[in-house]
Specification:
By secondary structure, this protein is an all-alpha fold. The chain has six helices and two strands. A hairpin with a 2-residue loop joins strand 1 and strand 2.
């Protein structure tokens, strides 16, 4: 069912007052650094481990990489529960109840959840970079527009700049202030929309 224009406007203006908005914002901003960490660790660990596996040195490194892959996925489940409010179960342990190290490894690698977790962890890097950068860029623009009046005509009497826009009149400063507030509201709304997409991905994988 499509929301009415009034409901959409209330949701837009009330975004800063919603506790979930700030959880969504934190999740989206953390997506890129965490995704980069996961990607670098798994790619380097996996490639170096496989490259040196024939010499025996790479086997422990591969086991550490597999363990980190499970830890990263478990961390993501916790973040999805605490910040996004997604009702997810705790990380599966397919090796429990299986005797022998080889059998445990086999149970782990034949579990569907293992590969779903890996897909999510690896997707975290490109999708996290896109979502984090979008929110960070929008938020930085909003802050710049919001503080420019205090740095320009309203305080020092001098011009302030936001990009190529020269703000040297009181009315321009007022426009900048209003534009900054609207941009920050749009940033929070964007964070909520991106968090909704992350919820869908978390539930799917």
């Amino acid at each position: 069912m499509t929301a009415s224009p009034g409901a959409l406007l209330r949701r837009f203006l009330g975004a800063p007052l919603s506790r979930s908005t700030w959880g969504n914002l934190l999740y989206v901003l953390l997506a890129f650094p965490l995704g980069l960490l996961y990607f670098v660790f798994l790619v380097i660990g996996g490639s170096v481990g496989m490259g040196t596996a024939l010499f025996g040195v790479g086997v422990p490194l591969l086991l550490v990489t597999v363990g980190a892959w499970w830890v990263f996925a478990a961390l993501e489940r916790g973040l999805a529960r605490s910040l996004l409010g997604v009702d997810l179960p705790f990380a599966p342990r397919p090796w429990e109840g299986v005797a022998g190290p080889l059998a445990r490894l086999g149970a782990h690698f034949t579990a569907e959840s293992t590969w779903r977790d890996l897909a999510f962890v690896l997707l975290k890097f490109p999708l996290g970079m896109a979502s984090s950068m979008a929110v960070a860029t929008s938020g930085s623009l909003g802050v710049a527009l919001l503080v420019s009046p205090a740095l320009g005509p309203w305080s020092t009497g001098r011009a302030a700049y936001v990009g190529a826009w020269r703000i040297d009149h009181g009315w321009e400063a007022a426009v900048s202030l209003l534009a900054g507030l609207l941009t920050l509201l749009l940033t929070l709304t964007l964070a909520n929309a991106l968090a909704a997409l992350w919820r869908l991905l978390a539930r799917a994988l």
